[in-house]
Amino acid sequence: MKTSIATVSISGDFRTKLGAIAKAGFDGIEIFENDFLIFDESPRAVGQMVRDHGLDIPLFQPFRDFEGMPEPLRTRTFDRAERKFDVMQEMGTDLVLVCSNVSPVALGGLDRAADDFRELGERAAKRGLRIGYEALAWGRHIHDHRDAWEIVRRADHPNVGLILDSFHTLSRKIDVNSIRSIPKEKIFFIQLADAPLVDMDLLYWSRHFRNMPGEGDLPVTEFMKAVAATGYDGYLSLEIFNDQFRGGSPSAIAVDGLRSLVYLGDQVRREEPQTQLAIPEMPPRSKVDGIAFVEFAIGKAEAPELEALLDVLGFHKHSRHRTKDVVVYRQGDINLVINTDEGGFANSSYLVHGASAYAAGLMVDDAKAALERAVALGAEPFEQARGPGEIAVPAVRGVGGGVLYFLDRGPDLGPIWDMEFERLEGGDTSDAGLVAIDHMAQTVKYEELLTWLLFYTSIFEANKTPMVDIVDPSGVVRSQVVENAEGSLRITMNGAENRNTLAGHFIAETFGSGIQHLAFRTDDIFATAEALSARGFTPLSISPNYYDDLEARFGLEADLADRLRRTNILYDRDEHGEFFQLYSPTYGEGFFFEIVERRGYRGYGAANAIFRIAALRKYLRPSGMPKN
Questions:
Q1: CA separation for the pair 137, 203 (Å, rounded)
Q2: How far apart (Å, rounded) are the C-alpha atoms in residues 259 and 241?
């Protein structure tokens, strides 16, 4: 599978774009004309730069407003084309993208357009060049790839072919199966882009909101399966117009782009096994059976405060690492690891971010296969020096530079808690009825949100939910969830743009993205609240006005409303059932714990977020004050 990306897809000057694209591992680069025109080097020098980076130039684009022009404009379009051909030959590329005409003076007619392309094909053939025709979704006369194909077919010239762009086809909801009958030799190039489903002008949608395949809501996989069915074996290229990407990290966007193409190729290979695309093989997406543990990096002086909080929540000190200052706190199936060791990566993370939940472990069906797939999709493997008797746990770098471990129940990794840790006997082993980690919430910079959604959904057997706006009294936080059908993997991803929000404060004060809260599941939240109260737990105090409104909004029975009010439990309901939430105050720079009970409910209490956030903000120290 040959991969490419258009220079318009990422930020920076041409040199910056070129370096990021090459480093990410692409095979080729589409040169967007404006990126060339604002660059000071000659076409020949640009071509040499590209080849020096080990890349090809499979496409130069775009050539606009060509077909169907009346005279004298028609003659001028051919003159422009000849100048374009000069640049291409100097640069060292043989294919130019001609997009369908949007000029208000353009004349319609398939035969008229075919005649123009036949003549352009003749001119291109004399130079050893090719013409690729693409139907823009907002083209004046041609806005459907089926009409563009009919023009190419009527032109009947070996140097004139079709360029298909997933956005232009899918945004107009054109049947992708119409692609399957197009001869593969007439498909010169494939451009790919996804987008969120929004109702707006096609041109504006395309120019500002495209994203990588798998990051949006369009059926790009179905489009690509139809292309694969033709026997197409050429380049798969990304052409992404996105305001966020234009202001983001060129290297990060390039890495995301390659991951999206590799993941898309893997999906096509599994569903269209006869594809002629040389798609690299990798293990299937990993099944996740739960969050096996979350690990905190913390200093020795600060550890007693966190340990006291865990004790109040009903966790007990279960075991200690045989060689390191690492302790496991357990309740039900929940393992929380407190790492105060003054060596290794955990300590480095603590020195940079302060006390934080820097690592998590997922229980998967095959840990080695999960690592192999993650690395094939561009994840950075994580390793550190192991002491005597320590097990090598497969891991990659995750959100905020933290660590994501993969565990399974096989003979190598299954006994890790017994082999590396010694059981601590005695002490209080009573609990508060917490049985498992319901979900893990990670807060990231908004521009990183798509990156991590693609990261999780491409590696694990999980899907993302639609984006939800979480209202903070100081702004809006964008939130999406990665979850599997079984509910054994739930990760809420919150993208913060404004540092004045609770999420933005967390990122600013901890110097990066990370795990901001953990939600524990109980089977009886009122019994848990009673047990927590007996242990000295002080819940997050919720405004009494919330409960007055809640009672009226849902028509709650007075007894239930009173129980919720007395225990500071929040409530929500959907078509599937009821949801109960109880929160701790913040710990450190905005981290907190949540306790939930689900009675068929599938969501995450988004309607309660504004009330929870307002209450949590009271516990934050003002920004700029020194830390203890």
A1: 8
A2: 18
d(CA 261, CA 247): 22
Low-confidence ranges of the chain (pLDDT < 70): 621-628
Task: Note whether residue 408 is domain-resident.
Answer: yes
**Contacts with 80 (C-beta within 8 Å, 6 or more apart), sequence order:** 63
Question: What is the reported pLDDT for 458?
Answer: 97
Q: Which of 70, 146, 151, 62 is nearest to 104 (CA)?
A: 70
Same domain, yes or no, for 294 and 254? no
Q: Tell me the pairing of strands 403-407 and 356-364.
A: parallel
Residues 175 and 169: their CA atoms lie apart, in Å, by: 8
Counting Cα atoms < 13 Å in the Cβ hemisphere of 153 gives 11
At residue 620, what is the residue type? L
Q: How many CB atoms lie within 10 A of CB 214?
A: 22
Rounded to 5 degrees, φ, ψ at 217 are -120, 0
Q: Are 90 and 127 in contact (CB under 8 A)?
A: no
- Domain membership of residue 607 (yes or no) is yes
Which pLDDT belongs to residue 57?
98
- CATH of residue 572: 3.10.180.10
String of DSSP letters for 407-439: E-SSTTTTTHHHHHEEEPP-S-----SEEEEEE
Characterize the bridge pairing of strands 434-445 and 490-496: parallel
* Per-residue pLDDT tens over the stretch 354-389: 999 999 999 999 999 999 999 999 999 999 988 888
Nearest to 513 by CA among 592, 589, 591, 443: 443
- Residue 168 near residue 136 (C-beta atoms within 8 A): yes
Characterise 577 by phi-psi region: left (phi > 0), alpha (psi -120 to 50), beta (else): left
The string of pLDDT tens digits covering residues 1-29 is 999 999 999 999 999 999 999 999 999 99
Give burial (CB, 10 Å; 0-12/13-18/19+) of 489.
Answer: buried
Q: Give pLDDT, residue 602.
A: 93
Range of the domain at 226: 2-271
- Number of domains present in the structure of the chain: 3
pTM > 0.90: yes
Distances from the Cα of 94 to the Cα of 56, 91, 130, 263, angstroms: 11, 9, 6, 28
Q: What is the pLDDT of residue 622?
A: 57
Residue 221: which region, alpha, beta or left (left: phi > 0; alpha: psi -120 to 50)?
alpha
